[in-house]
Amino acid sequence: LVVASQRLSPAMAALPLHHHQVDLQIIQNQCVLMEKDGSLHFHCCGLSTRDMLPGSVLLRTLFSEVCGTDVHLSHGRLNTVPYPVIPGHVSVGEVHTISSGTAGVVLDVEGTPIRRGDVVTFLDVIETCHNCVACLVDKQTTRCPKRRVLGITCRADASNICGLLGGWSSFIYLPPNTKIVKLPPSLPPQVFMSGGCGLPTALHAVDRASIRLMDRVVIQGSGPVGLMAALLARASGALQVIVIGAPAHRLGVIKKFDITDTINIEDCRIAAERLELVMKLTGGRLADVVIEATGRPEAVAEGMELCRDGGTYVVVGQYTNNGSVDINPHFLINQKHLTIKGCWGSDFSHFYRGVQFMAYSSHLPWDSVGRVYELKDAQEALTAVEKLEIFKALLRPQRSK
């Protein structure tokens, strides 16, 4: 990491002295900026809470996730990113400052006032307009053209408190109208973050799959989205859940959650052999539902084959353009009478229910999922995630004033 440091931001230094003394609190922030070339820069700066907009909230970060999206960001695979950004689009924090403005209070989505010291999380999506064809007519808010995502498509400015728009930071600035959710007292922050961004993504995919009681479900992919999809499928009433993926240590984590039917693609490298194994595990029926969570285009044709006639195939893992794949539409779609559904992003309903699911499931062995890194070790965490050396990485900033 390249380190940049200054005592006061330029905006603060330009203020008259009395502005530093009246209704003013100075925070010392450390954050990680990612440039377009993927390089990370560690930035230290004193910032003024006076610059916060009415209705905004400042969180002291407790944990922020390092996920596959951050790997994509580091390689420039998303074409709508206004670098530099502060990565970390799913985080949990403690309310530090509330700029209530003329409204007098900031409320969470249940109408409860947000108070200093509350432990909260938030929907990373902001500025969905609810006023365009996508939102109002098509009912596809995840495709709203004005939609932005904290930690991904929000340009960062580490020298302005309103520019702390990502979780790899001591503090996170939540703009007015950000959807905030208090964590239930029974849900530890680190346990919630074990679900991370894979949780609402998988919940959306499971919703799209319309899983029925006693369905047989195959999950392609053994990463965070795959784990959450498997658990949510089981909670939705699936009779059997099979996870296909690699490496072995990831499948080992999944087995700790009593998802015992797994297929390691490093041991069973031929698609036809994996099909035969799924056929055997399902008693010759194949899967009622298959959910793709791999990010690999070649998995798509295989996933269609794993579906029974009249089954459902949900594609959620193709978040970036990794190329094309050949399929035979006669055999894999028409003759199979297959239903195929794409799944893009998530909305607040998925996020809100995800918090509830983690509270309900807090007894599960979540301590086997994540490894915690200090903020200064962001590059190490990002590399470990990219190389699949760990299941999940969390960043924990050092506590500052």
Name the descriptors.
401 residues; alpha/beta; seven-stranded mixed sheet; six-stranded parallel sheet; 12 helices; 26% helix; globular; disordered N terminus
| Mean of all residue-level pLDDT scores | 92
Give the amount of beta strand, in percent.
Answer: 25-35%
Largest sheet: 7 strands, mixed
Oligomer classification:
single chain
Helix and strand succession?
A: EHEEEHEEEHEEEHHEHEHEHEHEHEHEHE
Q: Looking at the structure, what is the overall shape?
A: globular
Low-confidence stretches: 2-23
Distance between the termini: 23 Å
Q: What is the gyration radius calculated from CA atoms?
A: 22 Å
Q: Classify the helix fraction into a percent range.
A: 25-40%
The total count of helices amounts to 12
